[in-house]
Amino acid sequence: MSENKKVLFIDVDGTLVDYENNLPESAVTAIRKARENGHRVYISTGRSKAEVYQDIWDIGLDGMIGGNGNYVEDRGQVIFHQLITAEECRDIVDWLHGRGLEFYLESNNGLFASENFETMGEPVIQEYSKRKGKDDACRLTVRQAFPDMIFGGELYREDLNKVSFILSSYQDFLGAREAFPNLQSGTWGGAGETALFGDLGVKDITKANAIAHLLNHLGASVEDTIAFGDARIDLSMFECCAVGVAMGNGGPEIKAAADFITNDVTEDGLYHAFEKLKLI
């Protein structure tokens, strides 16, 4: 690619949209202008494709990295997709049921909630939103947080990207890590023992690994890459891309790793960053 044409990787939650799924019009304008100028724009997110709602696609994107790196799509073509096996899915679901933990399964075909996730998940989602500084967090419901979540669906699946489960304690994360050593185990919604959720996914899957697959497909150079993020999960993007931009609402680790820090997502952070980088 020309040295003037860049490949942009934009995290979604906390970067493209705020934690109530509000999409700033300035971000839409910035991305459309950048693409008009010949730059390629991809979202790079922990969400599975089923969670990328139409308002995001309507911006105009070249593709996406999903599941924190297990899925790569370029202009409608699937470049890479690594799934949890059907046997592993069954083992995970049985283990979570046996431990009495509520969860949801993330696939490109939808988010599938466990039997009591809607009720048990509500206070956890509210706490998560509260930690992100939302004033009306106490009124947030699971259906508002996950508008297309499927309740009562099949839980033994062959299309599983990853699974998130509510932690009753940090021991649940440690237990999952021990029970599934061949999968990648993690936590989110807080650091260490303050984490709200555990998750399980395909091992050695990262946003950086996905970016490498996509760049190889495009015939593009790392020198042409710019990453935008707000959280620890985005560190691998910053490590592999030429430029890393942290949102003003981001955490201390991502800010420390950034080449520069822009405004908050709700304060036209992406637009200002695109201007500074002369993308628009």
UniProtKB/TrEMBL annotation:
GO CC list: cytosol
Superkingdom per UniProt: Bacteria
Stored SUPFAM superfamilies: HAD-like
Alphabetized InterPro entries for the sequence: Cof, HAD-like_sf, HAD_sf
A molecular function (GO) term: phosphatase activity
PANTHER family documented for this protein: PHOSPHATASE YKRA-RELATED, PHOSPHOSERINE PHOSPHATASE
Protein name as annotated: Cof subfamily of IIB subfamily of haloacid dehalogenase superfamily/HAD-superfamily hydrolase, subfamily IIB
Source organism per UniProt: Hespellia stercorisuis DSM 15480
